[in-house]
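DM from R.C. (forwarded with permission)

"hey, sorry to bug you on a friday — could you get me a structure for this? deadline for the figure draft is monday and I only need the backbone to look sensible"
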Amino acid sequence: MTRPNRRWIRAVTALAIVISAGPIRASAAPFEFMAIGDMPYGATDSVTPSPQDLQGFDRLIDAINRRVPAFTVHVGDIKKGSAPCQRRYFEIIRVHFDRFADAMIYTPGDNEWTDCYRSPAGLQPQAALEAVRAVFFSDPRQSLGRRPLPLVTQGDRAAYRAFVENARWQQGGVVFATLHVVGENDNLPDTAAGDIAEQTQRSAAARAWLAETFSLARQSGAPGVALFMQADPWQLPRGSGRESAYTGLLLALEREVAAFQGAVLLVHGDGHTYCINHPLRVKGRVAGSFTRVQVFGDGAVHGVLVVVDPGTPQVFFPSTFIVEGNPIRAEDSRCPEYRP
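My reply, with the result:
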């Protein structure tokens, strides 16, 4: 009987070890994405964005196109909250969104719809939201931009058909998702406006999308999850004694981060100043695996460049992306209230 070759035995043994250990995922190559928000912010009238703001926004788009990131995410607020809400304005911004050479994903902000009560001359909140969905989410299964990405939309879930703007995609094994959560306390009623039924339904959809996103990430062995929304959930509501609309979302986020082994990044707007820190606490301790980034905005028309390296524990590496020719405010380089 011929004795097995020792080299053959070692190869078979190694193969058996690999099979018993489960699937081995090759480390994906690093890539970049860009995050922006709260821009363009001005309007000369109820329909037309200000030329100065559009020029600055186009400079940013041109700079991003030269950088060639994998995709860009806009976290909402494409106009001032006090400007009237008009579908024609949204259509003008859509034209500029279509200038992105690569994929561009957008999630709405409060200025586009919940703040529309501030100007009776334009669309009111629910009608404005319908216009936003019609203009920017006519095909929710793919992103905007000249080279769109395929997206999974929550609108395909029977219980959440209205929420076509909640999207998800994957790259390099990392899971990315948008959540429709907006500033000004997420449309929770105050003395001026709000809609508790609308907010309750949309908040439940956001939490369901969050849970589904992390479930996918755990099942696929994702090294990281990146979330995008307009609201700063740690911003306290204006007016004494008002309930924060973000409490349920933050509790859900704490649970998901605690149960997930990888890195988590939350990118949001609303504050108009670049900030980065680790505000989430799990069981009373700072969750070091969780990072929050707030993007530039308003008069500071710049981006946040995020390098994604799935082969490292941190996964996400944010930095500023300053556009030559666009103003830099003094406060753009510091944000003491957001220090880790």
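R.C.: lifesaver. The CA atoms of residues 40 and 54 lie 6 Å apart.
me: no worries. The radius of gyration is 22 Å.
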